[in-house]
Write a structure and sequence with these properties.
The protein is built from twelve helices and seven strands. With about 240 residues, the chain is an alpha/beta fold.
Length: about 240
């Protein structure tokens, strides 16, 4: 059976054996918890290793803005983290990250607190809030080097959800699927209004599959305007 070690090698990503062991422990915890809580539709270990663990970690190989920060302490918020993707795999791979996991469903965060404790992960904080409300908190707003999200939403909505968390000169990285040129064009107004700039996209494919991943990287040039994000639900219902 192909495991995460196999897929890491296929992607030229090198991790210590202790990190690989923790990735497998995390996978087992998610699959076990999924028997009583809806965390993921993917429960086959081989599929999980590729579509959740490796997919979360591809940013280490593909995105220069992220790679340039490796080896030093930097802050990351995973917005709409769900079962912990991509935040937990990235924390395991890069212990120097100061990680915040934000989600609107508290029972997911209770589970992630169990994961954090079981794996001995330090400098990880869980926050129970909708993105629009969390971004209004003084301690979170304009505060992170990177905001990441694998959440399913339009690029316009994701920009309004996530860019307010990023400090000036930081980056928002959205994990998107396949070709997104039309979706990105529709998000141009939102990116401009939220003080985003230097937007570019990196395309890659998960190894030995036809699964395409697109990373949308948006640099933030200034503080978030006071009127954003709008109240909960507005970004999805009425995109900028």
């Amino acid at each position: 059976m192909k495991d995460i070690k196999y897929y890491l090698e296929a992607s030229d990503i090198t991790l210590e054996e202790s990190a690989i062991q923790k990735l497998n422990e995390y996978m087992n915890m998610v699959i076990e918890k999924n028997k009583v809580m809806n965390l993921t539709a993917i429960t086959d270990p081989e599929e999980f290793a590729l579509k959740h663990l490796l997919d979360s970690l591809l940013v280490l190989k593909c995105v220069d803005e992220f790679k340039s920060s490796l080896g030093r302490s930097f802050s990351v918020i995973d917005v709409g983290t769900g079962a912990g993707f991509p935040g937990i795999p990235l924390k395991i791979a890069c212990p120097e990250i100061r990680l915040t996991l934000l989600d609107s469903l508290n029972k997911r965060l209770v589970f992630l607190d169990e994961v954090i404790s079981a794996l001995g992960l330090s400098e990880v904080t869980t926050v129970h809030a909708r993105a629009e409300d969390g971004a209004r908190r003084k301690e979170l707003r304009d505060n992170f080097d990177f905001a990441l999200s694998r959440a399913v939403a339009s690029q316009s909505a994701l920009t309004e959800y996530c860019l307010p968390f990023v400090k000036p000169d930081g980056f928002f990285i959205a994990y998107k699927s396949g070709e997104i040129s039309e979706e990105l064009a529709e998000a141009e107004k939102a990116i401009k209004l939220l003080n985003g700039t230097d937007t570019h996209v990196i395309h890659t494919t998960l190894p030995e599959s036809d699964i395409r991943r697109s990373f949308v990287i948006i640099k933030k040039k200034g503080a978030t305007p006071k009127s954003y994000p709008r109240k909960a639900g507005t970004a999805k219902r009425d995109p900028l």
